[in-house]
Amino acid sequence: MNEIFSFENLVVYQRSLDFVEHVYLLLQKFPKEEVYSLGNQIRRASVSVPSNIAEGMSRFSDKEKIHFIEISYSSLMETYCQFNIAKRLNYISEEDLMAIIEEIKNIARPLSGLRKSLNPNP
């Protein structure tokens, strides 16, 4: 893929796109009655992660960039919580949960680093 915008070169952005794809695959395991409730909430939160990276890194001021990166991080944590709920309800396996948590950690670390790089004195 030829990147058009600079945020597309960010590893954290690319990982977050892979994460959304994985989330959508996991949601296929959910019972039909959860498609429009917990499943929809997880879908929206996971899509928010790369969307806010893209929006934030397209802003001109560091303050605005930081704001959107923080929203992205919050959405990532929301997704983490929701998958823990899904596991408790037996919608996903322990292995599925561990795999998604590993992806979340692999996004959270560079996302935090990106935020710090924009404002080294939080």
Task: Note the topology.
Elements: H1 11-27, H2 38-57, H3 62-88, H4 94-118
Helix pairs in contact: 1-2, 1-4, 2-3, 3-4
Task: Walk me through the structure.
The chain has 122 residues and is mainly alpha-helical. The protein has a single domain, classed as de novo design (two linked rop proteins). 73% of the residues lie in helices and 0% in strands. The protein has four helices and no strands. α1 packs antiparallel against α2 and α2 runs antiparallel to α3.
Helix content: over 70%
CATH-defined fold name: de novo design (two linked rop proteins)
- The CATH architecture category equals Up-down Bundle
Q: Helical region count?
A: 4
Principal-axes shape call = elongated
Write out key terms for the chains shown.
de novo design (two linked rop proteins), 73% helix, 122 residues, 4 helices, 0% strand
Question: Brief overview, please?
Answer:
This protein has 122 residues and is mainly α. Helix content is 73%, strand content 0%.
